[in-house]
Amino acid sequence: AGIMLLYAGWKGWRSSEGQTSNFNFFLRILSALILMTGAILLIIFVPLAGSSGDKDIWLGLRVTASYSLGTVPFQLAISLFFAILLFQKLRGSEFLRILFFLPYITPAVASAAVFRQMFSNRLQAPANALLRMIGLEGQQWLREPDGIFKMIAESMGATLPDWAAGPSMALVVIIIFSIWTFVGYDIVIYLAGLGNIPMELVEAAEIDGAGKWQVFRHIIFPLLSPTTYFLSLIAIIGTFKAFNHIWVLRLGEALGTTDTFSVVIFSEFFEKYRFGYSSALAFVLFAIIIGLIFVNNKIQGSRVFYG
Q: Does domain 55-303 have CATH number 3.90.1200.10?
C-alpha cells in the first residue's frame, strides 16, 4: 500500500508540474500528502514485516540477491573478455569455442553432482588438493556457512560486522558453478554481436591513432550494448529462477545460506506441504522478476545504442 501511494503521489506531482491553475495547486498539495502518507506507511510497516515475517523467506531473498549480484557482472565480464579473445581468429579458436560451450549443453544435475565432489570437504578433493599444493589449508566449501569476506578478514587477523560478511563460502562455490556453466552461452552471443560490428569503424579509429583500449571503450563496447542488455536481462531472470544445480549443490551444513527463493518455494511445497503459501510465494517471485525487468529497462534501456 505504501509503494502504491508513493507511486500515485509521484504521478500526481509530475502531472501538475509547470502549471499554475488552482486545480493543479490543490493537486500538488494532495500529491504531497499522499507521498508523505506512503512514506510513513513504508517506514512503519517494512521494519515490522522484516522482524515478524517468515525468516526463511527473508533469508531466501537475501541469498537470491547475493547470488544474482555475484553471478551476473562476473559472468558478463568474463564472457566478453573471452569473446573478444576468440574473435581474433587465433589458432585453435574453433576448438576453444566448443570447449567453452560444453558446460552449457551438459545436463545441469550431472555437472553439479561432479562439481559437488570436486568441492567436497575431503582433503583428497581436487579443490582442497589444489589449495594444499600452494600451501593453504583445505576448506569446507559447500558445508561452510560463514561469509567469504568474513573468512578473508579473519585470516588476516581482522573482524567484520555481520552485515559485511558477504555471501557464504558455499554460495560462492555455487556462483562459480553458475558462471562456469553459462559463460559459454554468453560467449556465443557476444561473438555474434562482434560479427555485426562494422570493421570499417575500428580500422578508421586505428588509423586516427586510437589504441586498443580506446577502440574497445568508444566503439566496440557501445555497439555491443544491445547484446549486453539482452544477456544481462536473461542472466538476471535466470539467477532468480535458478533451481536444479542449487538443489544438487546445497547441503544442510550450510545452514540455509545457499537456499535461494526458488529453493524456499520448492521446500514449502514438497517438504512442508504448504501448497497455498508456496503458490503465493511463486507469485511474489514473479512480481520481483517483473520489477527487476522494469528497473533494468529504465536503467539500461536509454543507454542501448542500436547503430
A: no
